[in-house]
Amino acid sequence: MSYGPPPPGNPGPPQGGGYGGPPSGGYGAPMGGGTPPDNGLTWAIVAIFCCWPFAIPAIINATKVNDLWNRGDQQGAMEAQAQAKKFTKIAFIVGGIWVGLWVLYVIIMMIVGIGAASSGY
């Protein structure tokens, strides 16, 4: 079955025929290209065990890095990475201080307990 020639004003099939490839623009790699910065998500998750109040914002910011980068917002991705690193460092520092104080407390209590036991009370 033949349909005949296309009506006047119709451009007809494209020259060369076939698929011309994906359209330009739209989604895909960001304009700047390259790989996104390290989001630090692994260290932010580990920081949960040190000081969770600071680790939660670190995780939230770390999960934003790749999404912002893929949307083409390199500056936003770099800011989210900096925030994630900052909160991760704070969580490790506060957690380290907390563990140090706890160890010091246990040592002092052991000394006081040994002193009280040896005095014969």
Structural class of the helix and strand makeup?
Answer: mainly alpha
Q: What is the terminal separation in angstroms?
A: 112 Å
The proportion of strand residues reads under 5%
Report the C-alpha radius of gyration, rounded.
31 Å
- Element-by-element helix/strand order: HHH
Largest sheet descriptor: none
Share in helix: 55-70%
What overall form do the CA principal axes indicate? rod-shaped
Number of separate helices: 3
General description of the model:
By secondary structure, the chain is mostly helical. The protein has three helices and no strands. The mean pLDDT is 84.
Précis, in short:
This protein has 121 residues and is mostly helical. The chain contains three helices and no strands.
Which features does this protein show?
121 residues, mainly alpha, rod-shaped
What order do the helices and strands come in, and which of them pair?
Elements lengths: L40 H6 L5 H19 L3 H45 L3
Helix pairs in contact: 2-3
